[in-house]
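seq as requested:
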Amino acid sequence: MTETVSTGVSTEGAACACTPVTAHLDVQEVEALAAQFKALAHPIRLRMVDLIHAHGGQLCVCEFEQHFDVKQPTISHHLKILREAGLIRSRQEGTWVHHAVEPAAFGRLRALMARFVAEPVP
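struct tokens:
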């Protein structure tokens, strides 16, 4: 869904040469993407995603501990934020919880970034 965005400038009584601006992202999509970027904006969480990807696509909480100078509850907190943002998924296997990257979420982020670096549409 696209929407027209107001520039906030009143054109009443004046001839404005501006054309309406059309946004390609709807409000709900913007909210979800912003939450994902916010989750990735923390250095520990960004490294966590990189570690998951670099180690075959999934890691257990205990495997994160050797890479960070924080305790397990802090690691779990960061994993929860990534999970709530839809960037990772978790699967319990016995007493262990394995965390994996959510490919669809990163596909959407990649598509958005590709659109931002592409030539603007006139």
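The beta strands are 3-5, 21-23, 58-60, 88-93, 96-101.
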